[in-house]
Every structure is written in C-alpha cells, then in structure tokens.
Amino acid sequence: xxxxxxxxxxxxxxxxxxxxxxxxxxxxxxxxxxxxxxxxxxxxxxxxxxxxxxxxxxxxxxxxxxxxxxxxxxxxxxxxxxxxxxxxxxxxxxxxxxxxxxxxxxxxxxxxxxxxxxxxxxxxxxxxxxxxxxxxxxxxxxxxxxxxxxxxxxxxxxxxxxxxxxxxxxxxxxxxxxxxxxxxxxxxxxxxxxxxxx
Length: 198
Fold this sequence. Notes:
Elements: E1 5-11, E2 37-38, E3 41-42, E4 46-55, E5 60-64, E6 67-82, E7 87-101, H1 102-111, E8 117-131, E9 134-148, H2 163-167
Parallel strand pairs: 7-9
Antiparallel strand pairs: 1-4, 2-3, 4-6, 4-8, 5-6, 6-7, 8-9
C-alpha cells in the first residue's frame, strides 16, 4: 500500500457569517457546497478530514427514495523511511467507512474498484456502539469529494450526462505553445536594442 495521509481541520462559523435556519433551505450556495443546513443553523466545529489511501472493498450502491447512497471501506496506511533497510516501510493501517450521497454516490460506484488509490475529503464521524455486549467504534467519512490519487497513476475524466452540459457544444482546446496572431510580431517596446560593434 502507498503512503497514507490524514489531515484534520474543523469548520466554524466565524464573526459576520450568516447562519441559516430550517426555513432557509435555499441558503446561498448551501447545496452547491454540500454544506449541511440544519434546524437552528449550520453545523459548527465539524471535523473535516482529507484521507489518502486505497479502496478496500467494492463500493455498495443503493438507490433510496431520498437519493442515491454508496459506501466503501478505505484503507489508509502510514509509511516511514527505515534507515536500517534503506527502504519505505508500511506502518499502521486505519480503516474508514466512506459514505457518498446523490451524484457523488453514483459516480463513485461507477468509477472505483478495490485497490484504487484515492483521495477522500469529508466530515469525520466517530461512532461508538454496543453489539452483543461488545463495544464497537467506527470511523466514518461523509464524503464531499472523492478522486483518484494522480500521484500514483493516471485517470481519464468523463462528465456525467446533465442537461446543461449535454446541450453546450465542446470548445476547442487552446494551443498554449503558439502565440496569437496579433502578438506574433514583437512590438517596438519588445525589440532588442542593436549592440554596438567595436
């Protein structure tokens, strides 16, 4: 397994920030940014996490009445440089259950397979439970974004069929190496001064 990285941060509503209540379901950009809108306002101090690891189980997709849902296990293994062996060595592996909803769930289940290196960003939820007299702890990530780790391979992106993207014609890719026609000839300001020959 490749090196694992977990970055943790907390979100807080700062001074001057707008807080939206239950009646403000159409809060500006709330749905677009996947910000939870709850009764009484935005969630404060949620623990955001960015985990880099490998897909450990095949994503399980469910089409539910309130929208699509998918889950899979993510293995995040720390790696360190062993000076005695002069090689990278695997450390402890942490496992997370990653939950995706709506379009992210559909795209993740269609794109991911066991062993894929991925980067997952979302809200960390640590749950404790008692099952059959045993204490259980699970670490879940409510994913906001999931992508392949391009440091470890390549990927080809395909847009999903949405009405507004399907209607727009493809734009030609600009040629970044060839200057535009009007800037092809250097201006007087760009002309080098002739050197005096002695």
